[in-house]
Amino acid sequence: MESVSIFWSLISVKTRLVRISGFVCLCCLQMMVSFFSPAALKVTPAWCSGVFLFQVLTDCRVKSPSSFSAFASFGFHPVGAGVPWLPAGVQIGIPANFNSTAADLSGITNRNIFINGKTVDWTTKTGSALKEALVFSPEAQKFAIAREVVRLQSGGPVLNAAVAPLCLGGVWVYSVLLKQVFGLHAGSALLRGVANMVALSIGAVSYFLTSDAVSQWTDYASDRHAARVSPEYAKGGVEFYDKILSRNKTLRSLMGRKGEEMYAPSGNLFPAHILQLKHTPYTSRREGLLALLKEDKV
Fold first, then answer.
1. Rounded (10°) CA dihedral 19, 25, 26, 29
2. Which residues cross the membrane (predicted)?
3. Which end of the chain is more exposed for a tag (fewer CB within 10 A), N or C?
C-alpha cells in the first residue's frame, strides 16, 4: 500500500507538471503569438453552422454526428475533446487560420501576430513563409478535422486515461510478488520498504513508457484511419504535415533561442517537460501517409 500511495503521488506530480507546462505554454503562446483582433474569434457561417464539420463526419461515416459540435479555437490546427458516447459529446475546435484560402489571406493578414514582443511583418521573407505555412487547402483542413474525429470516436482520451490506473495496479502486483518471492511479509519493515521502492520504480518506468507508447499509437492510428477515408484525405494529410513542419521551422527562426528550445531543425517538437520522452514526430507521421499513398492502400 505504501508503494501504491507513493506511485499515485508521483502520477499526481506528473499530472500537475503537465497541466502547469500546458498552461505556461499556452500563456507563452498567447504572449508571443497572439491574435488581438476581435476577428480572431469569428469564423465563417459555414463553420459556425457546422456544415464543413458535418461533411467530414459524413465522409468518416460517423454514426452519431449530432454528438459533435464545432467552436472557434486558438492555435493553428484543430483540437478536440470529449467522447461521443457521453452526454456532453465531442467538441472540435477550428482555428482562425482555417478561414483563409490561397486566394484570400485576410483570415491571417488582418491579424497582428506577436513573436518575442514584435509584430510579424508579412512582407518579409520569414513573414511570407509563416503566412504560407498557415494556409491549408480544403483537403488538408478535412484531414486535420478527420484526424481529431477519428481519435475521439475511437476513445483516444479513454485509452490515455486508463494508463495510470493500470500501472497503479501493477505497482501493487509488483510489490506483492516481490515480498512473496523473497519472503518479506514476515521480514523487517526496512526490507518491505525496499521492496515497495523497487515496485514503485518499476511502475513509474512502466507508466512513463506506456503513456508515451499509447499516445504515439493513438496518433498514428488516427492518421491512418483519416487517410483511408479517401485518397484526397491522404494527400491532404501529407500537405497538412508539410505545412506544420514548415511553420515550426519558421517559428524556430523567428523565436530565436526559445524557438531552438521548442522546435528541432526538422520541424518536430522537443518534449514539453522532462517526464515526457518525446512527441510523435511530424516527419514520421508524414512518411506514414506517403507510404499509404505509395502502397495504394487508401
1. 180
2. 20-41, 158-177, 189-209
3. N
